[in-house]
């Protein structure tokens, strides 16, 4: 065969194998050549640079983008991850896995660890391996228990995480939202809540997700509506049950009187505050959260972090 025919055949074989996903024996039959010759042509395609194979590691982080996020929002560390944009479940799992690694790097045998609730926290805990033992460490829930169908109960997540790192777990005997303001005071005056609230003031690590604004959060929209709470239109998200605006101001509105969770000052006093989020639909939520001053380390997908920076430039510069 002449050179032109050789190159043409190599390209065709490479296309059928790498783009169309045909097996070598099927390519051989289709082109009326032998299977060993197909293998030879595929090798030749790599040698000639017709085919370039690269392995994309989703856990590699964009250092330039990281620095831009860190400098813009004055946080200790940002880890951006390039994840599939067409599969939110896989993207969330990848971000959660990296967040789990970051979290475990900061834990020691004396750590007091607080967990918020949400799907990201559940995925972070699921991503943790049972390969460490911190027998003196303590794990605490940071908000009350949420009783919503298909929503992972925080006490169970706290227990599961503690078991994975062979630590001690503590549970909260109070709901996320109480039906009446008087009920909240009763819960807060219980001996268990008094002890837990003191522990909240001495956290070494707080692990948090970043939630959508209440009117966009599928888990909570019906709950809030059923309680007829007046939710401010300024809210762009919540972190540890604290609602905030796009400028990072914690909002004071009626619903706060019904919520049981760690307060801003206690959360701010935690030595390391780690937040993880994924998805461009959370762009405003992440931007506002970064401006609260309640995040030291952020783990986020690359596409969303770029949108966060662009929105910040548009609104504040």
Strand content: 5-15%
Task: Report low-confidence residues grouped into runs of 5 or more.
Answer: 1-5
Structural domain count: 2
> What is the average of the pLDDT values?
87
CATH level-two architecture of the largest domain: 3-Layer(aba) Sandwich
User: What letter string, H or E per element, gives the SSE order?
Assistant: HHHHEHEHEHEHHEEHEEHEHEH
Give keywords.
317 residues, single chain, Arc Repressor Mutant, subunit A, disordered N terminus, seven-stranded parallel β-sheet, 44% helix, elongated, Rossmann fold
What does this structure look like?
Helices cover 44% and strands 12% of the residues. It has 2 domains: 3-47, Arc Repressor Mutant, subunit A, CATH 1.10.10; 63-316, Rossmann fold, CATH 3.40.50. It has 317 residues and is an alpha/beta fold. The strands form 2 sheets. Strands 1-10-9-5-2-3-4 form a 7-stranded parallel sheet, sandwiched between helices. A 3-stranded antiparallel sheet has the order 6-7-8, with helices on one face. α2 (24-31) crosses α3 (35-47), α6 packs parallel to α7 (154-164) and α12 (283-290) crosses α13.
Protein topology:
Elements: H1 3-19, H2 24-31, H3 35-47, H4 63-73, E1 77-81, H5 88-106, E2 112-115, H6 119-127, E3 138-141, H7 154-164, E4 168-169, H8 181-188, H9 191-200, E5 205-209, E6 211-212, H10 221-227, E7 237-239, E8 242-244, H11 264-268, E9 272-277, H12 283-290, E10 297-301, H13 302-316
Parallel strand pairs: 1-10, 2-3, 2-5, 3-4, 5-9, 9-10
Antiparallel strand pairs: 6-7, 7-8
Helix pairs in contact: 1-3, 2-3, 4-13, 5-6, 6-7, 12-13
């Amino acid at each position: 065969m002449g050179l032109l025919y050789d190159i043409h055949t190599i390209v065709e074989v490479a296309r059928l194998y790498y783009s169309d996903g045909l097996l070598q024996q099927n390519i051989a039959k289709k082109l009326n050549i032998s299977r060993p010759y197909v293998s030879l042509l595929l090798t030749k395609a790599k040698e000639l640079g017709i085919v370039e194979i690269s392995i994309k590691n989703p856990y590699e982080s964009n250092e330039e983008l990281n620095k831009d996020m860190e400098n813009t929002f004055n946080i200790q560390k940002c880890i951006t991850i390039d994840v599939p944009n067409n599969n939110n479940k896989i993207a969330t799992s990848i971000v959660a896995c990296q967040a789990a690694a970051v979290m475990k790097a900061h834990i020691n045998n004396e750590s007091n660890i607080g967990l918020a609730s949400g799907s990201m926290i559940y995925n972070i805990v699921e991503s943790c391996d049972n390969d460490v033992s911190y027998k003196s460490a303590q794990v605490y829930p940071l908000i009350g228990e949420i009783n919503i169908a298909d929503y992972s109960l925080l006490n169970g997540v706290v227990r599961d995480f503690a078991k994975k790192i062979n630590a001690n777990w503590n549970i909260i005997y109070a709901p996320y939202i109480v039906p009446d303001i008087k009920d909240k005071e009763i819960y807060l005056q219980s001996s268990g809540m008094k002890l837990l609230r003191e522990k909240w003031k001495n956290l070494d690590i707080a692990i948090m997700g970043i939630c959508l604004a209440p009117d966009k959060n599928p888990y909570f929209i019906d709950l809030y509506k059923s309680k007829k709470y007046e939710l401010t239109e300024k809210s762009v998200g919540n972190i540890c049950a604290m609602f905030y605006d796009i400028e990072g101001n914690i909002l004071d509105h009626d619903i706060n009187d019904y919520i049981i969770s760690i307060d801003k000052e206690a959360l701010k006093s935690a030595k390391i505050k780690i937040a993880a989020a994924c998805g461009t639909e959370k762009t405003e939520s992440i931007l506002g959260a970064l401006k609260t001053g309640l995040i030291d380390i952020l783990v986020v997908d690359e596409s969303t972090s770029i949108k966060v920076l662009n929105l910040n430039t548009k609104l504040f510069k």
